[in-house]
Write a sequence for this structure.
């Protein structure tokens, strides 16, 4: 089957659900959530039947769209992330409902389940994009969907603030991206990545500076997407204010896709050492700053979502470190594996947060106090999640860090590895703060142990799957490698 | 299936059972550790050396063949000695544990996880898992100190955990550096191949790898000046955690140094010998005097265990020249593990009875607790290194080996530091005997008159530890025949 059908089907499912939601008044809104999940899962299954050879190589789209192994791998990645997010969104509905203008009968909830489908389709196009125009258009689809989702809790000031911040800074970064593309197009005469790599190979040196400037602008815009320092200013506020499932979505899928685009763009310019060397040293510099700032800034946080925001910046740093060592080979695997692991453990942490904030009404670290007494299983799941984020052996996170550091040492980036070691130690500090809250500290004053944090069946199943995956990949990571590009 | 796998699985399963059935946690933990102890003894008795540098009871599962990572288990004489130590101390730690009070399932489960971690580390022949199993103990220690510790337990738990996490991460980087420096095209984490390549001199890793390993392993063993986490953590932790940590887990670092660093880095060890010797001298003399100044029993034992690491490092440093000092270090690991575990077990009992370990508040307890006093005397003598205990055999071999190590030149650095180390024995005697006197002799404050001696059940583990120490002390050949073939000088 032709790969381009995947996104088409997904978008159709999204439109159908929107229409059905508008006309089917009496249906419970969670039905649409489950409908969207079925659609996403169906498309995920279909990815195993696609055949890149079915694409018409004469057709115009074949220059924009590639269905290589990298693209297919990350299409599946994005679909799985969307599935988890939808499941969490259904679970999160009562909290969301509180902050919607009309709280009667779940009004306004239906669209919340459809928007992730459009964002998902955008991201699936993005990982296939081999042309700057295509990159730009699908990126816009993704970010516009996110603008709406981030600001969805319209009666919550934090969510609105997050939406405005994300909108303004996102628009700015889009502007920078277009400007950069314009420079590259102006000098090289093409926006296609294959064409670009042919053109830069023969470009006379006096024209290279302009391309470099354009490339720098593109790098800034992508740095904004993956939350690299110094383009991370939007991250803490947006992560804290957005509805928790959206935060998880931003933190996992949006970041992963940003890295895929970054890899593709860098790949196009590597043919010319003039760009390759500069790109690598710039990325290494960004990686160092991102690891340091992300980890140091996470230490004093008291809100768990904010802490995860800085931790997501920190993880972007480790990923950038792997990206900076692509010259040594193997780093592509390290990045892909790290992103898979990051998906699992971040979803785990956010899923537990949803349960806690649903039953206790908050997502500060102090809301986790004494969780081991309220619900030992939930506390255990969270403990495994944060320890994996910290990179403890026998969790998936350890293998992720292990591969990243192996490739960085292989590439001889010793100073960066030094910063990385310091960052990992900081990481242990702030992740263990959650462990301390759950196991050491007593319940907050005025709360009884009887406020159980009960878990619904679907979310419980998701938690079990994520915990098992975290532990299984921590001992036996080769299945992921079998799927990798 | 290799019996070594059950050494890891039994404590893991017992830990899970403890979490699930907290009311029977103590029984489960006793059962699991007893089984493991018997298995360790059986392995030592049934072990027939397969030849120099060969390992027995091998088993292997591929984990990530592309990177050369396998789940590879196997033991030789040296690892068997470590396993025996782990088995004895794990059993005694559970046996001697005071009642935890709250959440017994979590408490004993964490102790068993530490035990599983050390068993895994000492049976793994794959460097990746060797490292990973050691890390398994990090979080249980954090929880044990933070929940059941005494004194300023939370700050202490933070400090120790961050320190150890950083130290072991640097260690990991060093191991990766070594991995990347391996000759040949097929990547491997097989410890046997690393050692073989090192012995043949086919590997020339960059200097930073040596320092990363020395810092990493050194931090875990509390080498001066990276030792400050240790005394506070041991003083604060509940006694089974201190017993396992100071007695066994900490020795992981030395095991790694003797096993990997000696064969692979002969050049760097000779080149930087003087730096290491200075640190060792500080470890013995400076920390020794600090130990003398302690006013609490738990802090004193904690510092003394840091100080005694100096002897072990001396054995490691001299190991580049002769097997005698390496064998001595192996022997001393065993002896020190037993004696420090016995001391921490007794200190834990004392704390449970009196609620304080301040020297100024104790005294004359020998009159009300004669058995505990007697055993404390034995454990102190063992710790000082009196003949008849395993510590003595180890220390003597280390001193002889290290003294001869530096060559013919009169009063070379090795000889000077060995003399300092012998003076360290005197320091040990001073603080050990003074503590004994302050706690068990002299005037007894009124309020202790009603104390009862420890129950036999609480003293049996200490007896077991001391008996093992004395068996080896009187007949060291038992261990020497196990240790020497695996610790040949390159």
């Amino acid at each position: 089957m032709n790969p381009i059908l995947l996104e088409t089907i997904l978008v159709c499912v999204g439109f159908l659900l929107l229409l059905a939601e508008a006309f089917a008044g009496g249906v419970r809104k969670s039905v649409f959530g489950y409908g969207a999940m079925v659609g996403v899962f169906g498309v995920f299954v279909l990815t195993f039947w696609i055949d890149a050879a079915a694409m018409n190589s004469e057709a115009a789209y074949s220059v924009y769209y590639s269905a290589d192994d990298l693209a297919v791998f990350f299409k599946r990645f994005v679909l799985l992330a969307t599935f988890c997010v939808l499941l969490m969104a259904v679970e999160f509905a009562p909290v969301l409902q509180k902050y919607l203008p009309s709280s009667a009968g779940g009004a306004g909830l239906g669209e919340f389940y459809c928007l992730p489908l459009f964002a998902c389709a955008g991201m699936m196009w993005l990982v296939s994009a081999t042309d700057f125009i295509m990159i730009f258009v699908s990126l816009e689809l993704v970010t516009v969907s996110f603008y709406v989702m981030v600001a969805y809790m319209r009666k919550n000031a934090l969510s609105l603030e997050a939406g405005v911040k994300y909108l303004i800074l996102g628009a700015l970064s889009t502007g920078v991206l277009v400007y950069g593309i314009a420079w590259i197009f102006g000098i090289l005469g093409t926006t296609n990545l294959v064409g670009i790599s042919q053109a830069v190979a023969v470009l006379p040196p006096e024209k290279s500076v302009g391309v470099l400037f354009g490339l720098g602008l593109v790098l800034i815009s992508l740095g904004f997407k993956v939350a690299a320092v110094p383009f991370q200013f939007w991250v803490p506020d947006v992560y804290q204010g957005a509805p928790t499932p959206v935060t998880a979505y931003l933190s996992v899928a949006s970041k992963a896709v940003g890295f895929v685009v970054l890899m593709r763009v860098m790949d196009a310019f590597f043919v010319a050492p003039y760009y390759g060397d500069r790109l690598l040293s710039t990325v290494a510099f960004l990686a160092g700053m991102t690891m340091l700032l992300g980890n140091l800034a996470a230490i004093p946080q008291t809100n768990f979502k904010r802490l995860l925001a800085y931790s997501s910046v920190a993880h972007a740093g480790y990923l950038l470190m792997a990206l900076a060592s692509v010259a040594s080979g193997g780093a592509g695997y390290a990045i892909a594996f790290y992103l898979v692991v990051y998906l699992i453990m971040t979803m785990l942490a956010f899923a537990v947060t949803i349960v806690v904030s649903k039953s206790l009404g908050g997502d500060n670290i102090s809301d986790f106090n004494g969780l081991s007494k309220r619900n030992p299983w939930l506390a255990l799941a969270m403990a495994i999640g944060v320890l994996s984020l910290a990179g403890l052996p026998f969790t998936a996170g350890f293998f992720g860090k292990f591969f990243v550091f192996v490739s960085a040492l292989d590439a001889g980036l010793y100073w960066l590895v030094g910063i990385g070691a310091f960052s990992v130690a900081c990481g242990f500090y702030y992740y263990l703060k959650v462990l301390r809250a759950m196991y050491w500290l007593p319940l907050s004053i005025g709360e009884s142990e009887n406020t159980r944090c009960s878990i619904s069946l679907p979310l419980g199943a998701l938690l079990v799957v994520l915990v098992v995956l975290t532990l299984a990949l921590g001992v036996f990571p080769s299945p992921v490698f079998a799927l990798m590009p | 299936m290799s019996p070594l796998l059950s050494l890891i699985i039994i404590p893991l399963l017992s830990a899970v059972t403890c979490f699930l059935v907290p009311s029977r946690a103590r029984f489960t933990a006793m059962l699991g550790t007893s089984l493991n102890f018997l298995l360790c003894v059986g392995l030592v008795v049934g072990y027939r050396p397969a030849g120099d540098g060969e390992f027995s009871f091998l088993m292997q599962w591929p984990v990530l063949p592309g990177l050369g990572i396998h789940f590879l288990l196997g033991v030789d004489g040296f690892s068997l000695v470590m396993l025996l130590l782990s088995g004895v101390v794990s059993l005694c730690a559970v046996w001697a544990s005071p009642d935890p009070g709250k959440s017994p399932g979590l408490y004993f489960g964490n102790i068993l996880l530490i035990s599983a971690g050390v068993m895994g580390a000492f049976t793994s022949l794959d460097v990746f898992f060797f490292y990973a199993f050691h890390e398994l103990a990090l979080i249980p220690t954090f929880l044990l100190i933070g929940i059941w510790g005494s004194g300023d337990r939370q700050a202490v738990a933070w400090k120790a955990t961050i320190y150890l996490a950083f130290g072991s991460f640097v260690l990991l980087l060093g191991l990766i550096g070594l991995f990347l420096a391996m000759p040949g095209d097929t990547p491997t984490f097989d410890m046997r191949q690393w050692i073989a390549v090192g012995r043949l001199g086919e590997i020339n890793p960059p200097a930073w790898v040596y320092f990363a390993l020395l810092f990493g392993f050194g931090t875990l063993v509390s080498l001066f000046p990276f030792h400050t986490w240790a005394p506070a953590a041991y003083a604060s932790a509940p006694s089974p955690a201190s017993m396992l940590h100071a007695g066994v887990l900490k020795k992981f670092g030395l095991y790694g140094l003797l096993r990997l660093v000696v064969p692979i880095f002969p050049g760097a060890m000779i080149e930087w010998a003087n730096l290491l010797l200075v640190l060792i001298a500080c470890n013995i003399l400076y920390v020794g005097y600090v130990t003398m100044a302690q006013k609490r029993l738990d802090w004193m034992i904690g510092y003394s265990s840091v100080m005694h690491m100096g002897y072990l490092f001396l054995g490691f440093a001299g190991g580049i020249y002769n097997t005698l000092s390496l064998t001595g270090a192996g022997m001393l690991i065993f002896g020190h593990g037993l004696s420090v575990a016995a001391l921490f077990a007794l200190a834990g009992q004392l704390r449970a009875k009196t609620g304080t370990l301040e020297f100024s508040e104790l005294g004359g307890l020998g009159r009300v607790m004669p058995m505990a006093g007697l055993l404390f005397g034995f454990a102190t003598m063992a710790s000082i290194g009196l003949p008849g205990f395993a510590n003595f055999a180890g220390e003597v071999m280390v001193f002889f080996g290290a003294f001869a190590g530096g060559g013919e030149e009169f009063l070379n650095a090795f000889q000077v530091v060995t003399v300092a180390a012998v003076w360290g024995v005197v320091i040990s005697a001073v603080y050990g005997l003074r503590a004994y006197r302050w706690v068990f002799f002299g005037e007894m404050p009124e309020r202790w008159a009603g104390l009862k001696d420890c129950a036999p059940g609480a003293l049996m583990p200490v007896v077991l530890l001391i008996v093992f120490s004395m068996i080896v002390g009187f007949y060291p050949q038992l261990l020497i025949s196990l240790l020497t073939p695996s610790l040949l000088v390159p």
In short: Chain B has a mean pLDDT of 88. The radius of gyration of chain B is 21 Å.
